[in-house]
Design goal:
The protein is an alpha/beta fold. The chain is about 55% helix and about 5% strand.
Amino acid sequence: MCRWSDSNWWQAGRLKIIQSSFFYIRAFIFPLFVTYFYLIITAMNWLIIAHDAEKTKELKRTLLLHDSCAEVNSIDSGEKADDSVLLLISKADHCIALLEGITEFTPDVASVLGYFLGKKVPVYTTFDFLSAGSRIGGFVKYFPTVELLAEDIGGNYKKLAQIQRKKESFKYLFRNGIPFTPACFASFVAKGKIDVCRKYLDAGMDVNTRDGEGTPMLNIATRSERMECISWLLENGADINAVSSDRGYTALMDAVWRGNEDITRLLIERGSKMNTVNKEGQTMLVLAVGAGREKICRMLVEHGENPDVRDSMGMSAYEYAKLFKKNDIVGLLEKYHKQ
């Protein structure tokens, strides 16, 4: 008696579903998870120093509206500083100091603001005595009302977050002894270390930078067969059609050369250019035919790759397939062959 689970087509279909699911998890879901996790661990840390509980509550709501991952703490400007307050001050990377009712610099106010200025922590304040302080390294901004202060933060929040990420990313690289160079960036791309690669981009590295041999990061990720890293680079603006200086390969050509069907499919789906030619005058299809990779040949011709483009030897992919008696590939290319 034949059971469903014993059927060859059922087993093959199930395997195909599993493989397809794995492909999309690696190509799309994993990079999104990394992005979400990264946003959580690099959230901005705000400290509000105020005596008015309602104003503090409204400012917290405003900050979380612009950044739900932000950490927002507050301390009462009328209370004495204990260890818990000092801990909040030490953690803050942005400060809002309302300081209502204060008419002069007290030792506590001077020490807290001096600490923030020393750490180059931006301070937003309605404290009138600090209006001249806005010239102190550009880290103190004075506003006559809380409403204007909140409006300024809201309108510039994206820029503030970018500045903070750049600052934190440089600190991370420096603290871990990681040089800020294209060569080192390339080494982490090759290892698929997206967490560290993100630090490079946030610190100001161009996603389209190249290593010492002129190889784009997308090509390096492809040659190392790092599916998640390829997706991440593309999402961050990597040029999918950039050509390496060493071989004259695009990332798609590298994927074909490696024989990686998943990465080939991903790059085709993302819009990689077809019918490109490397330094030897070879097309991607010539490489695929030479390696006998029928599935990749099928993907290429179904998306516009021309089997009749001749290389520097005057031979086309179709002619190579016939010459080396790759009959299955000849049969595949036959309906696309026009010359």
